[in-house]
Structures are given as C-alpha cells and as structure tokens.
C-alpha cells in the first residue's frame, strides 16, 4: 500500500475519528469502530477524506465496512483512483 | 415539498371537509377538531395503561428547549434540514417600525430578527437526557421516563396529511445497562404492535432508518440498518408505501456520551426511546375504519372508549 496515502488517512482519522485510543497506537488493520469511532465520527472522516484526496465516494461505498480500517479505506481510495491490486 | 399520491390528497381534503383537520394555510400545520382530539386523547390513555408495568417516572417539558442542548445533542449533524430555532426581534424603535411595515406587506423582515437561546423540540426525548444526567449516576436498575405527548417540530412541509410539521409524539425513554436497554426496546416492539392491532390497525413491524441529511446521512442510515438500531410499526395510510406510526430506537451510547449518563459502576449507560406518532395513529384509525368514529366496529370502539 502507498505509504503516503496511509499517512494521510491516518492523519484524517486522528483529526476526525474521535478514537478512544491514540491514532499512533493502531495498526492499518485495526477495527476503527472497535477503537471508539462512532457512526457520526465516521461521516466526518468520510467527508474529510473526500477533501484530502479530492474524490467523491459513490453511494455503494457509503457503508460501514469501507471505513472500518485504514486498510479498507486505502483499498476504496485505490479503487476510486483507478488502481488495481492496491 | 414531497409529492403525494391522489389517495393522500383525497384523504387530506376529506379530513378538512369534515372538520377533523383545521387548515391553517401552511402545509403540515393543522388544528384538530373535537372528534379527532377525542380519539387522540383516548389513545394517549391506552399508552399510559400499556406502560404501567414499567412504572415510568413522568416528566414533562415545554415544546421549546435551550438551543445549547440542541447544539450538544448531535441533531444538527444528523438532521440539519429538520431543525427549527427561535428568532425574535432585536433592534431599535425605528427598526421595529420598518419591520412592522414590511411584515404587514408580507415582505422579508428577517434582518430585524436575531437567534434566541431557544430551539424547537425535535423529539420528545431530547430534553430528558440532560435532565437525567444532571441528577448524577444512573441507579443500577436503570430509569424509565414517560415524557408524555409532547409537541415536536420537524421542518418538512408536505401535502401528505400524515407528514406534519408540528405534532404530538408520545415518548418513553429507558436509560440503563446496555443489555437491559436493548431488551426493553425489543419488548416494547411487541407491546406496541399488540396495542395497534388491538385497535384493528393492520400494523407490521419493520427495520427502519431515520431521514438523515445528505450523503453522510446515507452512511448513518446504512450503519443504523446494519446494526438494527431502529424498528417501526407501519400502517397503510394512502402512500406508495406504508407509513410509520411508531418507532423504537436503540441509541447505544450516542446520548449517554454527549450528556455524561453514567452507571453506578462507572461505565457509560445506553439509552433507547419509543415514540408513538399520535396524529398518525388517529389518521390510521380514520383511514382504516372510516371518517365517522361513531360507525367504527363495536370492538374497536370498546377498546378506545370502554376501559
């Protein structure tokens, strides 16, 4: 996975995810909802990611599983950027 | 304004023609005629009776709440399109004169109005959470609050007689340990369904989502559906799909987090609420059994009028 992209995602989660733990202590596969991110916080993460990556998540991606980990978010962004194999 | 079916439009016209609904000229804002109100008040008593096993504590609040409470509740994140805040005059004597002149011509006079410390109550349970949080720790057995049939506001003008901007929501709230709150919500789904069916309403229970705003709202709705946080009792009311007349909502720690609702062991409480939309239930009765309550089936009349 693109390290820069993961860092940007991590930054957005740190700012908007309202995790109950420090964002630096989670791995790229940590369940963000399990780490305290609420549904409302996940919406703010989604909107901030759209700004950060200048893209728009289509309706089919506006579901919990797309935002459940840094890996899952990175895969969705890779798909929207036209990349294959993440 | 949302489109309505011909059936809904015809139903609305009949309600007005018979004096059950009193028109105000604003969509979704009606007075109630005596026959309508008699049914609503009797239904409200049936809910009180159905809730008696819970031994709820009665709390009542005005249809206005502190704007700061609305701001802290998360409502403006989920439903910015439905919220209403109270504005009032703020200006000089000459401003007042200008305001009156423009208002009397029905022109724009908003520039003389400022936001007050008040907002309209969007759901009857909203004032309950901060009031209970102010008492301190939640007792081990949890609390059940009967918030009564409060006037609530939703800014959604519609020609559908069942989509009102101001209506009575009869709400009950449970605050306590997660398992107990979840079980209470599920138990009430069954009790509510039984209550509506005892009135001859063809009610069905279904998983539901709130009318969250925007694209973020789609995500909230998907999450709500996936976690089965909301159930509704729905009855045919002339629309393309059945209309929700009662809802049962499990908020998990949403309100508890915001208002600091804590259990005796220090853990965060969970909350749930249920709301009977009283006008919608009266409308469902009129739609199902006919617009003349004296002609309703005797067994239905007995449930309502012979306790």
Kindly list the characteristics that best describe this protein.
heterodimer; A: 86 residues; mainly alpha; 0% strand; B: 307 residues; alpha+beta; 7-stranded mixed sheet; 3-stranded antiparallel sheet
Description:
The complex is a heterodimer of chains A (86) and B (307). By secondary structure, chain A is an all-alpha fold. Chain A has a single domain (3-80), classed as Orthogonal Bundle (Non-ribosomal Peptide Synthetase Peptidyl Carrier Protein, Chain A). Chain A is 47% helix and 0% strand. Chain A is built from three helices and no strands. The mean pLDDT of chain A is 93. Helix content of chain B is 38%, strand content 24%. Chain B has eleven helices and twelve strands. Chain B has helices at residues 6-17, 34-50, 67-73, 75-78, 93-104, 128-133, 178-198, 214-226, 254-259, 278-289, 298-305; strands spanning 21-23, 30-32, 57-58, 64-66, 85-89, 113-120, 143-153, 166-176, 204-207, 230-235, 243-252, 270-277. The chains are: A mainly alpha (86), B alpha+beta (307).
